[in-house]
Amino acid sequence: MKVFNYQTVNPEGVEGGASKVNVRRLITKDMGAKNFAMRLFEIETGGYSPLHTHAWEHEVFILEGEGVVFDGEKATSFKADDVVFVPSEERHQFRNTGRKQLKFLCLIPNEK
Amino acid sequence: MKVFNYQTVNPEGVEGGASKVNVRRLITKDMGAKNFAMRLFEIETGGYSPLHTHAWEHEVFILEGEGVVFDGEKATSFKADDVVFVPSEERHQFRNTGRKQLKFLCLIPNEK
User: Fold this and answer.
1) Distance between alpha carbon B93 and the CA centroid of its chain, in Å?
2) pTM for the complete prediction?
3) In whole angstroms, what is the distance from residue B81 CA to residue B41 CA?
4) Is the ipTM of this complex over 0.95?
5) Most A-contacting residue of B28, B36, B63, B102 (CB-CB within 10 A), to test interface
6) What spatial distance separates the first Cα and last Cα of chain B, rounded to whole Å?
7) In this predicted model, what pLDDT tens digit does every residue of B20-55 receive, in sequence order?
8) With an 8 Å Cβ cutoff, are B109 and A36 in contact?
9) Which one of A25, A77, A95, B81 counts the least CB within 10 Å of its CB?
10) What 8-state DSSP symbol labels residue B57?
11) B interface test, pick of A68, A81, A107, A108 with most B CB neighbours within 10 Å
């Protein structure tokens, strides 16, 4: 088994319609996790992930900060200790609307 | 999509070799999460999960507190902000060795 602090995994910038977003790929297929991947996202104040749709679901836990998840029409607020489930094929965008960094875990299935 | 505080999901006691452990089943197959499940565990001081082995992996993020993960021979310490990956078929037990509640997310694949 492996035990490590999340900060030992370097953040990577996120492109493709994102602003002020980093991702740390904490648990990966390369590590032997064949079914799903754990990533930690950090979004600075005013930043956002792309507004997009895809076949894979998101299982999200908000660690710090606050923001909204936008579905193209409606924005739903969240804050630390909230859970967000985005089903397959639902449009979504995460936005940091708070004054400090937004930090959340986002898990996705691995491609078969 | 769904957004909710984790505390809105009631804790259930855990039996079968566990002591002082509750689980909140945050994201489930019933909710439409077909690939994997998000659960939040709370272990009181001195409590532990069963020492056991199974085919499914664990992807864990420590939210609060501290403890060790024991593999039957060796105990490895962890604390808040640590990631623990337990591969398929590796023996493991989570123990709260701290003075306050241990709280962590533990995600597992759903049965096909």
Assistant:
1) 10
2) 0.97
3) 15
4) yes
5) B36
6) 23
7) 999 999 999 999 999 999 999 999 999 999 999 999
8) yes
9) A77
10) -
11) A107
